[in-house]
Design brief:
alpha/beta
Length: about 260
């Protein structure tokens, strides 16, 4: 099982990128689980036909800590992608990062990974801040690799730099490694050059450039990923290319898994 955390500033298109990556990997024959780690709880929406699924924290609140079953929090979406939303605290009360920790603990307690046996787990993590529960996929060793989604905008690059710095710091302890930076284009002037220069300064590389394309909005208006709604478009091909790049990054762990079967 390969575990990949996808980080990026809120509103940068991280969930769209992650969902299309999940769909492309599933289409390629891999069993994929996507875990949304954002209080908005909309990471998996386009994998579920536009429907928001119940969150782990909501189910714990409704049914109590011992009343939650695995079927209450894991849902099957497009092409068999297993969808989970950690959820967030009651507005104004509690810590969203702490909610992620609670959700992860519940998945472990219920044996989700042993029951479903995914080949690839994608954590979709809010990256405006890298503290507490938001850093858990890195610092607790949940993820093997971290992908950082950014644009050429200043605040997105600032968040990306913070995330990369955190991964480098935790990497010294044998935790997750940087798999690369994904440029989700916003058509900012000289955007590719700006992000490539920033990546070089961070000591990293741009793994893939995703162009700005109306196909994304068309698909989301239908409550679907581009891979599902518009499979023959250039944009779908772009996400499949991203999936190939991610598989290259994860090839070592996937080979180990096959040897252990």
């Amino acid at each position: 099982m390969v575990k990949i955390a996808v980080y990026g500033k809120g509103g940068i298109g991280k969930s769209t990128t992650t969902s299309n990556l999940s769909a492309a990997l599933a289409e390629a024959g891999y069993k994929v689980m996507q875990i949304g780690c954002d209080p908005k709880s909309d990471s998996t929406k386009c994998l579920m036909g536009g429907v928001k699924i119940p969150t782990v924290l909501d189910q714990i609140r409704d049914k109590g800590p011992t009343g939650v079953e695995i079927e209450d929090i894991v849902f099957e979406g497009f092409h068999g992608v297993l969808c989970v939303e950690a959820g967030g605290p009651t507005p104004g009360i509690g810590c969203a990062g702490r909610g992620i920790i609670t959700a992860f603990d519940k998945l472990e307690e219920l044996g989700a990974y042993d029951i479903y046996k995914p080949d690839i787990v994608l954590y979709d993590v809010l990256g405006d801040v890298v503290c507490g529960g938001f850093a858990m996929p890195i610092r607790e060793g949940y993820a093997d690799h971290v992908l950082v989604v950014t644009s050429g905008e200043m605040m997105a690059l600032y968040a990306a730099s913070n995330i990369v710095s955190a991964v480098h710091n935790f990497g010294k302890r044998g935790y997750a490694k940087l798999g690369g930076i994904i440029l989700n284009s916003r058509n900012v002037e000289n955007e590719v050059e700006t992000v490539e220069k920033a990546a070089k300064e961070m000591g990293e590389k741009v793994l893939c450039v995703i162009p700005r394309d109306g196909a994304v909005q068309q698909a989301e208006d239908l409550g679907k990923t581009v891979i599902e709604a518009l499979p023959d478009t250039d944009m779908a091909a772009c996400y499949r290319n991203l999936a190939e790049k991610v598989l290259e990054v994860s090839s070592y762990e996937l080979q180990l898994d096959r040897q252990c079967v």
